[in-house]
TrEMBL record, chains A, B:
GO terms for molecular function: dihydronicotinamide riboside quinone reductase activity; metal ion binding; NAD(P)H dehydrogenase (quinone) activity. Its EC number is 1.10.5.1. It comes from Grantiella picta. It is an enzyme of class 1 (oxidoreductase). This is Ribosyldihydronicotinamide dehydrogenase [quinone]. It is found in: Cytoplasm. Its main location: cytoplasm. GO terms for cellular component: cytosol. Belongs to the NAD(P)H dehydrogenase (quinone) family. It catalyses: 1-(beta-D-ribofuranosyl)-1,4-dihydronicotinamide + a quinone + H(+) = beta-nicotinamide D-riboside + a quinol. Gene3D superfamilies: 3.40.50.360.
């Protein structure tokens, strides 16, 4: 109660299974007394490309464009583009970040990767001297909630699904100091029965009820590759 | 000689180190008698977002938009958007795909992830019955060539850099049947001496000279997590 949640949502279709998972999260968390914000990336036509347009006014070095340096400098002098400032404000306020998306190619869709690339700039989310447990977003939690195309068995044939979580959970969120909750994975909702789909939705509601009591995972290689 | 190469390049600045690596690859491979094409994603203002705009004409199901199904159907009836058809033609012709990019967040930049999401559609790059060694792009090679922000030592502290190659090399390219060459990694070119940078460029030229004699890696969990 009183907790702030930001859901970063990347699906084109409100009637999709991802849309249902989003709706459940908004309803359940609101019911608990949380304040919930949603960044609906496709609806916002969120820009995934990291370009000069992200810096208002003069460049630090207009001879050779370096996105990392330019956004760091722009952050310090308050010259990042408006859409980024808006997202950073939401991140800053949030106690919990939920990422809701369909897995595309063992990874998040490009529009969500673009959110990571553009919003989590140096100075705001990390500094090279302040990374991982000392990252600038420490004190926050995150949760990756996603659907897959293939079945659980298919993913298990060649390795473990945890392998593909390493770059997202460890390489991004842990790097920024955010603690990671167990991912929430719905396998192949398009290929199962209506009954099974309902069960998956119920399981998400149930999990959210006790979410604030969960312990974060130990985000080290052992969790992923043991 | 006579081989066809497609370089998919994701950097905003021609004067960057990535720009130099691209230039070297184009020059060296052309000198060898290869035919080289470059998809310069930022220069093309390549669209990374997977939306309805990728399908010309009527949707298969306009009640609830499903990107995977719609692009698969559109591929079969020749109704994918022109920019995708153009990229698919380049991929189809190529013997070797080189991906040249700066690592962003343990992964490729969103604009390149968008290329994967949108170009490699079902029916063209894979079918669920024809994946991995039987994938639809078999007979081709690929190589991920990228720069990092942090040093080799930094990446080694928490696990191995190979961990983050799993989703890209195995989850995308291997899934489509493409054989994977050893990645080419230039660590922290922004933080080393001019001399060291020159050495890195020379090493890339040297590698390209004998590239066609290389054996692909064994793209299984052992290579990544042994």
């Amino acid at each position: 109660p009183g907790k702030k949640v930001l859901i970063v949502y990347a699906h084109q279709e409100p009637k999709s299974f991802n849309g249902s998972l989003l709706k459940i999260a908004v309803e359940e968390l609101t019911k608990q007394g949380c304040s919930v914000k949603v960044s609906d990336l496709y609806a916002m036509q969120f820009e995934p490309r990291a370009t000069k347009n992200d810096i208002a006014g003069r460049l630090h070095n207009s001879e050779a464009f370096n996105y990392g340096v330019e956004t760091w400098e722009a952050y310090k002098r308050g010259a990042l583009s408006k859409d980024l400032v808006e997202e950073q404000k939401k991140v800053k306020e949030a106690d919990l970040l939920i990422f809701q998306f369909p897995l595309f190619w063992f990874n998040m869709p490009a529009i969500l990767k673009g959110w990571m690339d553009r919003v989590l700039v140096q100075g705001f989310a990390y500094d090279f001297s302040k990374a991982y447990d000392g990252g600038l977003l420490q004190g926050k939690l995150c949760l990756f909630s996603f659907t897959t195309g293939g079945s659980k068995e298919k993913y298990a044939i060649r390795g473990d699904i945890r392998y593909l979580l390493w770059p997202m959970q460890h390489g991004i969120m842990h790097f920024c100091g955010v603690k990671v909750l167990e991912p929430h994975i719905c396998y192949a909702p398009e290929n199962v029965s209506d009954e099974k789909r309902k069960e998956m939705l119920t399981a998400w509601t149930q999990r959210l009820k006790t979410l604030w009591k969960e312990e974060p995972i130990g985000c080290s290689p052992e969790w992923y590759f043991k």
